[in-house]
Amino acid sequence: MEFWNLFMVALMPVLKVLLITALGTILAIQRFDILGDTARKNLNHMVFYVFGPAIVCSSLAKTITLNNVLILWFMPVNVLLTFLIGTALGWLLIKITRVPLHLHGLVLGCCAAGNLGNLPLIIVPAACKKTNNPFGDVDICRKNALAYASLSMALGSIYIWSYVYNIVRIYSRKVSSVDDDSKVKAVIATENDDTENPSKSQTDDHVMQLEIECIISHQQTKVSSSSTKQKIRNWLKILTEKINLKVQFAPSTIGTIIGLVIGIVPQFRKVLVDENAPLFVIQDSLVMLGDAAIPAMTLLVGANLVKGLKGVGKQIPLVIGIVLVKFIAMPAIGMGIVKGATHYGLIHPDPLYQFLLLLQYALPPAVAMSTMVQLFGGGEGECSVIMLATYTCAAVSLTLWCTFFVWIVLS
């Protein structure tokens, strides 16, 4: 009986996610085309630039204080561990299944980056809504849940756009380098064939020679700079490419910084956050905007899955491997880490907080992976298939793991 009670507590929030996700998928199919490519792009911009930062900023400003920051210190460590462990398991998956080079960045990113924003923001507060929820008073539970989930979303955004972004970028460059080498070999081979076949036109010979010179000179310029000044320039260029400040300071990251500053500094709280604050209307407006983030995010998840409906059968071994990593290996390892940290007194004893830390290991890949793959090119179709398969499996796995996690933190 206790199992079924916990199962229903875990099922309800996941079921809400599934229903809204399914609606997003239906609205995106060609027959309705309400969430077509243009609409998805515009809605994604609204979530990225407006709704997401609003909910992060308002939630953190309202609930996070200096004391809370010290209490929640383990969450950044926990999120970092999910990324590092996922990367290690993804590397093993690449070696075992012999994934093609152009998909290495995609596989590592999908294994490392979980959906630390959308799903916790939906699942964790929803688990508090019932009066008989296992986490205590409804209002206090939901207030803490929004704060924990917002911090999770902010940390996930920072790690995704600093750590995973650079993994995908590095592997995309490796693929480009291999392609350039292939082009050089192909052009040289063609030139040799033309030498053996004098019937080729002289114009074609000149074109081939020009292509060879352009490609080889492009590669040689990377190593031919000898002056110290040029070396310093190249080094600074590489550094600025690696540290993309525009990417690092995404809107949700800026919202996190502002929210933390308002929450931690008492003077700002008195002016903006307290109910009798003279500028409370600003906080109230942010809350109103933030309320639109959760349904919009969930609809986008469903709409983006439409692309994966084609070609599922071609990627079955890869999909099975990622499902095993994300929904079996990662949660099992995460339980050991969180329970061990709890045993040694490193984690705040709030069951809701421990539940979120465990949940961070059982989430499907981050939706931002689709954006990164489109940005660097290559693997868009495989990414859509992976997203469709993992989010479909998450319907079952998240319910079961949430049930088990609730039982663990309350036992």
TrEMBL record:
<keyword id="KW-0813">Transport</keyword>
<dbReference type="InterPro" id="IPR045033">
    <property type="entry name" value="PILS1/3/4/5/7"/>
</dbReference>
<dbReference type="InterPro" id="IPR038770">
    <property type="entry name" value="Na+/solute_symporter_sf"/>
</dbReference>
<feature type="transmembrane region" description="Helical">
    <location>
        <begin position="6"/>
        <end position="27"/>
    </location>
</feature>
<keyword id="KW-0472">Membrane</keyword>
<feature type="transmembrane region" description="Helical">
    <location>
        <begin position="247"/>
        <end position="266"/>
    </location>
</feature>
<keyword id="KW-0927">Auxin signaling pathway</keyword>
<feature type="transmembrane region" description="Helical">
    <location>
        <begin position="286"/>
        <end position="306"/>
    </location>
</feature>
<keyword id="KW-0256">Endoplasmic reticulum</keyword>
<feature type="transmembrane region" description="Helical">
    <location>
        <begin position="358"/>
        <end position="376"/>
    </location>
</feature>
<comment type="function">
    <text>Involved in cellular auxin homeostasis by regulating auxin metabolism. Regulates intracellular auxin accumulation at the endoplasmic reticulum and thus auxin availability for nuclear auxin signaling.</text>
</comment>
<feature type="transmembrane region" description="Helical">
    <location>
        <begin position="47"/>
        <end position="64"/>
    </location>
</feature>
<feature type="transmembrane region" description="Helical">
    <location>
        <begin position="70"/>
        <end position="94"/>
    </location>
</feature>
<feature type="transmembrane region" description="Helical">
    <location>
        <begin position="106"/>
        <end position="127"/>
    </location>
</feature>
<protein>
    <submittedName>
        <fullName>Uncharacterized protein</fullName>
    </submittedName>
</protein>
<comment type="similarity">
    <text>Belongs to the auxin efflux carrier (TC 2.A.69.2) family.</text>
</comment>
<feature type="transmembrane region" description="Helical">
    <location>
        <begin position="147"/>
        <end position="168"/>
    </location>
</feature>
<dbReference type="Pfam" id="PF03547">
    <property type="entry name" value="Mem_trans"/>
</dbReference>
<keyword id="KW-0812">Transmembrane</keyword>
<feature type="transmembrane region" description="Helical">
    <location>
        <begin position="318"/>
        <end position="338"/>
    </location>
</feature>
<dbReference type="InterPro" id="IPR004776">
    <property type="entry name" value="Mem_transp_PIN-like"/>
</dbReference>
<feature type="transmembrane region" description="Helical">
    <location>
        <begin position="388"/>
        <end position="410"/>
    </location>
</feature>
<keyword id="KW-1133">Transmembrane helix</keyword>
